[in-house]
Please model this.
Amino acid sequence: MKRTQSRALPYLLLAPSLVFLTAIFLLPLVQTIALSFSESGVASLGNYRRMVSDLNFGLALRNTFLLVLVVVPIQLALALGMSVMIEKIGRGRDLVLWVWTIPLGVSDLAAGLVWLAILQDRGYLNSALYGLGLIEGPTAWLTYETPGTLFLGVVLAEIWRATAIVLVILVAGLQLIPKEYREAAEVFGARPWTIFRRITLPLLKPSIQTALILRTVLAFEVFAVVYAIGGTNFPVLVGEAYTWQNANQNTGVAAAYAMLIVVISLAATAIYLRVLRVPAEQQP
Amino acid sequence: MSGLKRTVFWTGVAALCAWVLVPIWLIGLGAFGGRTGVFRWPKSLWPGDASLAALQTFLAVEGVWPAMVNSIIAALTCMALSIGLGAPAGYALARFSFRGQNTYRLLILLTRAFPLAILALPLTVAFIRIGLYDTAFGVGLVHTALALPFAALVSASLFQAIPRELEEAAWVFGCSRWQAFRKVVLPLALPGIAAAAIFAFVISWNEVFAASVLSVKNRTLTAYLLTVLAESPLHFRFAGGFLLILPSLAFIFAVRKYLFAMWGIANR
Model:
């Protein structure tokens, strides 16, 4: 009796979460696929045709990719630099870490509003520029007539908000690397840059991989930051899905957008898994 | 480090701290400055006319309080469910070896490659049918999908870190499996689980897309702010943004000790 009980126990413990994930993750995934390929109950590619022929589609696709391609590499570089700095801080390390990880708890909507306060016409950036004599009065940076600065504003807000998650993963990864490796390299006269490139970076690869996957998938979901800063002046993919669902009441096209984002996310993950592959014998 | 190097290093650290903190300070000024503060030109970095009145005005606007209450209900739902479902799964992964274990782990890791919040779209139909549409509880359910995989992985390694022998000793002294878990294992794992729970709360509190899609009247604070964004004055938006940030500051402070252990764990 006791034996069969303990055999079934792990499955009983897993079952609730499995049922839940099936209902709220797998089933909706299948439903999204079905919705995107059907129009009023009939199988069709109509939703995808409407999505692609929409005026904003090309723009949203381009903007989203541009954002990811600019933001993610900067975040990785910045977080790497910060995590190496953290290693060198003796006293005050915990305080600095807390400050640097604060944005981890800030929502994308709030981050967008934060940067709106700074970049709006009568905001703090313009006040500073005015003080320096660089502009003559309130200047607009975030309209559809200034797409360059609007893009920069979104990039700043994204870097401000979401570098912390990369930092946390990298710092956690650094803690797993035995100090002896670097000390040995030092004994043999390796310079800090060489140690970083030849020892720290390769051993950190699994963490970098996780950080990049998480961050990139989330970066393709960018939406509220953009909306808070630029309204509808800067279309992105999730924003379009939101508009089709809520304003246009067309779940089919919204589902097509969702599928596009799913495919892009999976492709990005597959690329990271391949390019940053960690051979089994090197795994810690 | 030599003197110059040291100066450069600490300047860098200070600059990065300022990079995080100054924007929060500035939206705080925007939130407390009210209508007059927003139009002041040029702006000052110090609070001249800041007062609590501006935030009180914001809270008095129709819909703000209910939205906050909804946010809290959704976040508590997410917190309770992701721990309630995730921690047992974590215990199973940590203490048993059984067939299907790796498949389960794979499913959990797989969720990372999907834009989970976006998959809430088709749930509107199902939620309308079973009466969960436009409820904070329904939103909390979807947010649980975001937090549950994390909670399961974190609790798995929390339990793994507690020596099996402690539990076995309790069995020897006549405790049942459940008693041993409750009296020996749980107290040791509790701080880490609390940290994961707080993290689940923050995930839900901050989520925008699923919350906006799944509700019309009973909106969470993020969904409410998103819908009124276009037609609301700037000082109103800043007050909203500031209120969204405030609890997160406290929560991240509360879990700071466990932050790195949690993520180091969730990686493997």
